[in-house]
Amino acid sequence: MIIRFKLWALGIATLVLAPNVAHACECVGRRESREVTIAREFKLADAVFAGRVVRVGPRLEPEWQHAVVFRVDRVWKGDSVTTHTIYTADVRGTCGFDFIPGQHYLVFAENVPVWGGLATSICMLTTATKKAGDILAVIGDGTPVDAVTTAWWRRRDFLLGGALPVFGGALAVATN
Fold this sequence. Notes:
CATH 2.40.50.120; disordered N terminus
């Protein structure tokens, strides 16, 4: 009887006094129908693209965060670029997505400035492309990405951030 009491007391003490070391993922607000969820997630995402994982690697700070590099072949939202780097948490007990190099994925990502760019998790609609039929039925085919659509002379950031101000300034100097 005394041994049973001691084991019971030890169990209660462990639960009460043990530090909270496990952080399980909890995706809040994901209870609507699949069609509503797809439409909502598409609206909330800053980038939606399909591509093959080129590399998965840990970042140094914070070390629980992984940088995943994709070779992009289709875009629905966001920049039409041939590569994207997306951040996700480590998959051990957090909401990180377990990307496999060489596999093809449909990625929904949000801009997370504290992470340094676009990020995704298991709470978003990111999934292997071969399992994304219901999502693709709602969002459509997207736009193919190729060398022509991402050429440096067609990119808005090149024109607005570099070429136009330089050429415009040179033209203004030449005409004065």
